[in-house]
Design goal:
Blueprint: H1 15-23, E1 33-36, E2 42-45, H2 57-67, E3 72-74, H3 75-83, H4 91-106, H5 108-111, E4 114-117, E5 120-123, H6 131-147, H7 151-163, H8 176-203, H9 207-220, H10 225-237, H11 241-259, H12 265-275, H13 318-332, E6 341-346, H14 353-363, E7 372-376, H15 387-397, H16 409-420, E8 426-432, H17 435-438, E9 449-454, E10 465-468, H18 474-485, H19 487-492, H20 494-504, H21 508-520, H22 526-534, H23 539-542, E11 544-545, E12 548-549, H24 550-559, H25 563-572, E13 580-581, H26 582-589, H27 593-605, E14 610-613, E15 616-618, H28 621-634, H29 637-662, H30 686-695, H31 697-709, H32 713-722, H33 724-729, H34 736-750, H35 753-769, H36 773-789, H37 793-809, H38 813-830, H39 833-850, H40 853-869, H41 873-889, H42 893-909, H43 913-929, H44 933-950, H45 954-968
Parallel strand pairs: 6-9, 6-10, 7-8, 8-9
Antiparallel strand pairs: 1-2, 3-5, 4-5, 11-12, 13-15, 14-15
Amino acid sequence: MSAHAYSPDRPELTPRRQAELVGALGEEGVLGVDFRLLGRLEVEAEDGALCPVPLGRQQILLAALLVHAGTVVSADRLASYVWGDAAPGQPRAALQVMVVRLRKRMGPAVAARLQTAQPGYRLVVQPGDVDLHRFEDLRLRGLDTLKSGHWRPAKELLSQALGCWRGEPLQDVPASVLAGEVIPTLCRLRLEVQRGRITAQLALGEHEHVISDLSGLVEASPFDEQLRSQLILALYRSGRRAEALEAFQAGRRALVRELGVEPGPQLLELHQAVLTDDPQLAWCETPIPAQITAASRPPGSAPPAQLLADLPDFTGRAQVAQRLEAVLVKSAEQTGSGPVVLSSIEGTGGIGKTSLAVHVAHRVLRYFPDGQLQADLHGAGGSALDPSELLARFLRGLGIPAEKIPADPEERAALYRTTLAGRRVLVLLDNVKDTAQVRPLLPGSGSCAVLITSRSALPGLDGAARLTLGVLDPDEALTLFTRIVGARTVTAEPEAVRAVLTICSGLPLAIRIAASRLVSRPGWEVKDLADRLGDERLRLSELTVEDRAVRASFEVSYRDLPPAHARAFRLLGLCESPTITIPAAAVLLALPVTSTARILESLADNHLLQSPNADRYQFHDLLRVYAAECARTDEPATACDAATHRILSWYLHTSAAASRMLNPTRRHVVLDAPQQAWRPLDFTDYSQALTWCESEGSNLLAVAAQASRTGHHEIAWKLPITMWDLFHLRRQLEGGIDCYARALASARELGDLQATAWVLTNLSSAYQGAGRLTEAADCLSRALEIRRRFADEHGEASCLINLGYVQVEMGHAAQAVELLEAALEIFRRLEVPAAEAAAHNNLGEAHKHLGNLRLALHHYQEALVIHRKGSDQFHTGRALTNVAETLCLLGRLDEAAEHARQGHISNRETRNRIDEAIALDVLGQVHAAKGRHTQAAQHWHHAYMILTELGDPRAAAIDIRLHAHLTSTDTATY
């Protein structure tokens, strides 16, 4: 059952996530608060005082945020809770006003936790702040302890869980929608806890103590035969035999009268046992559920116990371990007539498949009293074990004399299934090659369970519960490392520990080896280990200790690959992009797209690649290092160089094609014709080109860095130039300054002054976006000097336009006008309309800063005419927004609103989100000026969310305007 079953779409509030949320409250922290939902809605401050909880819709809003505490709840969902089907015309704006008032009403301790977060709001909580979370934690721990047969601690935990309840949940909150979603599930979970506590109490012999609770539960659920059986048993063991028989008769009457059915076999058997005073009803503390008992074995034989020892420092994997345990326990609780339960753990080498399987197997030992069989089938490595040989080994372990084991494989398999029939045996098949190898080893009895690990996907294994094991998350990785090296070492060098764990990338084998090396070298500091692992070419050699090595683990899978797949694996390691698509891989491998797709899928099936989504693949970081190492050792150097040049060139030409589609009027770098052996992608429209750029943003940054590092200097300076549109449109894309700095180094390495001027101009834009205006101006001055030296008038005017804009932002608008008018004159003479429009736009900015609003409007309108004439939708949207903003400042509100509406539509279509937000801001100002406060708040909120997501500093100004507006107006009663 889900840990948060009352909210199916709620993600787990992991310790790491909780820490992040607590950190979001600020370094100084806030007062502790106890939120209580399981009864009346109460909020208690750290000093014990109850905070005043508002009534009505604000109470519903607070309750909804608390039910989903720690996660973002969308505005639409909150509106459905608060108003149901009677929502106001502008629910988002109304909701925003209500949040502001709730913050004020509840005081700073709660207000600091109530955060705006796209696409709605989030109430940040610390671990244990909410009684609902405390109940969930205790419930899960208690039921898990109950499952393992530890009755007394299970009873204590479940009692504490029930102690969190003070009445019916949300009993004073008038929220029909929220209540209908939450309360039934919460009540079901409470009943589950009550059942569990009663089970523990009965096992402990506390029969008289449970009668009252059971009577109440049976009265509430008269058709629940399990509860009635427990009541009858408790009464009987308390010496109240007549009452036990009456409890049965009352249940039978209810079933017959209301449902027309007789009691089930379990209740009937219990009734008969009470009538006959069956001795088996007498109490004795049972170590395992009564229905799970060992089958008969040959005299003198012990059940097989072949499991490897569990790791004493096994770490993490809590959720997947619980899931596997539940599947295996379900198998053990079958009567034997159902299908054999198969659980398959898949994953790359070193990911911890065997450790997890053994750990889970030990957790369910008590459910398989007839023994456990385990074997390594050597599926990876070329020496796969013959299943017939393993059948003989298993049969001997099950007590069959060697001379009675048939030689024929089919007869051997049949005897194996016969021997297991009716027994409760767990079979762990480790390192399976394929489905054919494992099929003869499957029992025929449903009372047995099989746990399988494999590096392959085993698609032919029908009916298996599959689990693909991923890397440890950062918290789990740190915990594992700490358990091996000790907390004192970790605390002393946190940065070095972080560096080591980053290099290990969550691979359990790598973490264990790195930690073991540190422990075995008392004279080392963690920094020494981090420095050794920092050299990528020596990294895998460092990740070796005794008989364990990351390289050896990977090599087992690599050496099993067919030649074409092995070649693809190592060549893919040459491309340093975080992910790769099928078209890009086809160019790298010099193969047709269809063949490439088949090979990539095969590598993914063998967990040598990951496929985060369709048509995109990626390496684990250490596997990439290994693949590149294989390329250096197993592939001719000329082939590696050719493959690297192909993929770098492909990215350059494809990025250039996207840039030409996104900004056709811009001056573009000249490229050599692509090779005949491959073709770059072609883009049919603006949206397609922008989508590719956005999806490939991190890849383009990585490839540009690789080109610079590997001496492909022409690609290294030209590729960032083609990426300018992506940086310009998506200012939140990190790495722009470093990208252009490397491009500048490559241009200088080539001694190409024209290339240097290109890059300096682009680097200035990156500096400008980061607010480093002096450095931006310096770059443009140097670029301008080069352009003038080569009598490049177009380049000169481009530098003047950009320098003029930087001067405006530096507060030197008068100097900017002079530069921009010179640029405008050049572009008019050269007849470059798009650049002329850019000059008009920047002149509009300069005059606006000087307070010359009418002159600014003139230049913006000139730019708009040119862009419309050239059918440039992107720049048309920007010009419309500029015109609207200026009209608003001039008080021409109706005209401003019309231009802002048109600009909003155009900017949204071209996905120019910054200008979309500015257009919304203008619309908000117009509505506010006309007294339409709700509409104003709605537009400003939308603009604020966009700019916040993009990391644009203008978000702060809109937020201030919005809250000032909400504070000064009383638009409605909510």
